[in-house]
Structure formats: structure tokens, C-alpha cells
Specification:
about 190 residues, 6 helices, globular, alpha/beta, three-stranded mixed sheet, 6 strands
Length: about 190
């Protein structure tokens, strides 16, 4: 097991296991080696179970990635055209509702983002949003337009999103659960 002990000004002990299966043990500065070992022993079953879940998830994602058939250039062109029309009209509608302006809209096939908003108000959207449920695409549009008010991810920003998109947490969850399999379909070269 790959275990890293992180000491800080905290009072409690915590274990964090990342997707890479590295185990971070967060402990108070004065925690003894014996206390740390005792906690690891007490949480041994939980650690093994969690490592197993991560392994299963990683294997499933790898299989999904291998099975995902890349989009053809015709499919990409169709999705881009669809995205240009649909996301532009959604943006226009929600910008008016939220009370913000925006600049240029670009449609791309990004591997790491569903959308982005520049400080000048230019918006980028991923054409893969056309393969998502409508409420997910709508959430991404609202998310980016709310950046016209708050250029950060502060509490005020999330409150603003919730005011216009009360189900935003479900949309985010959908993207977390299904986003990788969509991104796996991006062609190797930009079409």
C-alpha cells in the first residue's frame, strides 16, 4: 500500500484514498507513529474495500474508454452545427434571464472542459454537449453565463447558479458519471 502521512494543525485523523490508489493519512502534528498505525489497523477493512472499489471503477472506465468508438468527421460536423444553433439560442435566452451580456461563442471538442468564459465574456462550449441530456447542456450554459457576474467558483457563484438552475447538482453528477465516456469519443485530431 502506498501511504503518505500529512501532519497539520488539525485535531482529528482522516484517511483519503485517491483514484491513483494513494492513501493519504491526515493527522494532528503530535500524533505518534503508534496512534497512526492503530488507526490504520482499525480502518484496514474499509481501506481494502475502498481500494477494491477504485480498482473496479478504474477498470470499468478503461474498458469504457477502449470500447468508445471515436466520432467520425461527419458526426463531428453535424454535432458542431447543432451545437452552434442550440447553444447560441440557449445562451441568448439565459443571458437575458440572468441579465448579463456576452461576447463571441466558440464551439470546440475539448478534452477537459464542457465550457468556459473569458474575462472579455467570450464563451466556449464543447460540442459533445449535444450528446448530453438537455438539462445538462442548459446547466453548462447557465454556469458559464454566471461567470459574467462572478469570475470564480465562490459560494455566491453557486448560489447564482442555483437561482436559475435548481437541479444543477444532478447535472454535475451526470457529467462526472458519463463525461469520460463522451470525451473518449473525441477524434484524435480536431476535425
Amino acid at each position: 500500500m502506498d501511504i503518505v502521512v500529512i501532519r497539520s494543525d488539525r485535531r482529528s485523523f482522516a484517511i483519503e484514498i485517491g483514484r491513483d490508489k494513494k492513501i493519504k493519512v491526515r493527522v494532528p502534528r503530535r500524533a505518534s507513529k503508534a496512534q497512526i498505525e492503530e488507526m490504520l489497523k482499525a480502518k484496514h477493512d474499509w481501506i481494502l474495500k475502498t481500494l477494491d472499489k477504485i480498482e473496479q471503477r478504474n477498470t470499468a472506465e478503461a474498458r469504457e474508454y477502449e470500447e468508445a468508438k471515436p466520432l467520425s468527421s461527419e458526426e463531428v460536423k453535424k454535432l458542431k452545427k447543432e451545437a452552434r444553433n442550440h447553444l447560441a439560442s440557449l445562451t441568448e435566452y439565459w443571458a437575458e434571464k440572468i441579465g448579463v451580456s456576452y461576447g463571441r461563442i466558440s464551439i470546440r471538442g475539448q478534452k477537459t472542459r464542457w465550457g468556459s468564459c473569458s474575462s472579455k465574456g467570450n464563451l466556449n462550449y464543447n460540442y459533445l454537449l449535444m450528446l448530453c441530456p438537455d438539462e445538462v447542456a442548459e446547466y453548462v450554459v447557465i454556469h458559464e453565463l454566471c461567470h459574467r457576474i462572478h469570475m470564480n467558483h465562490s459560494k455566491d457563484f453557486w448560489n447564482k447558479i442555483e437561482a436559475f438552475c435548481p437541479n444543477y447538482k444532478q447535472a454535475r453528477k451526470w457529467l462526472k458519471q458519463n463525461g469520460n465516456s463522451l470525451i473518449a469519443r473525441l477524434p484524435q485530431k480536431e476535425v
